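pasting for ref
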Amino acid sequence: MSHRTPASPALPQVTRRQGFQALASLTTAVLGGSALASCSSSSDAADREIVFAAVPAESSQSLEQTFGHIVTLLEQATGRTVTFQNASDYAAVIEGQRAGKIDIASYGPFSYVIAKDGGVPVEAVVAPVHEEGTTPAYTSLCYVAEGSDIASLADLAGKKVAFVDKASTSGFLVPLEGLMGEGLDLDTDLEMVLAGGHDASLLALASGEVDAAFAHDTMLKTLTESGQVPEGALVQLWESQPIPEDPIALNTSTLDAGTVETIRAALQGKANKPALVEEGICASEDDCALPEEIEWGYVAVTDADYDAIRQICTTTQADACSSVS
């Protein structure tokens, strides 16, 4: 899921603001900015900035822009500076929270479960919905080029297929379950390309680099509305069952209990377009950009809402599920 901002070119390299710092003892992934290095995992001083990161579902510039109103809301609620930090990949966000360098993270459902069940001290507090009062859910889609002779997932045998990241829910785990249901082995029956982002996955298909591509359910809309993929150039081949939506999770080891409650209350009560207008953060609901093409805002969730992802791990036994319980 992302708001209607220009996506990155095919198979992009993430823009590095202020350079990326190696998480040496924990991961080879890199995190952007000297701001991360300055954060202490053991202190939560009132004047310390709060670091917010998101898994790279699309280009880093797009993510930072679409989370802007949420960042402003959190700054108003806490009275502290909130810095949005771009990350190079899904693992960088997981390990950044484990290392105490990221206080708040927007995850995909699978990457959240990997973090939580892998011992990262995180608490899921909200996830997005398009309509007030509905259940947070989205789907994974597989696309092919217009005119392709591929008619089903079974026809992907022997084809070159773009996925997002092995820690992506709609860009890897759920597609894996779908392919297994057709009797296909990801390692032996097709050629896998990890694009790194949902936009990059579809752009690789649009440019003819792959025969099919998986992405979340609003990515194609973003790309067509921004003019990066011509209308009708890509067609839907397959759609998954509903998936629990992307959670925002708080690091309970870097944020004191009072700050956790303040942020939870702000996100659950005011991270929606009507409330953001009332708070003066957005001029109008029509001019209130939120991530992931969100049409209304965020609602409360708990860890139990992601048990469905744990069940898919049990079914698929995906490599990235090794820490999932």
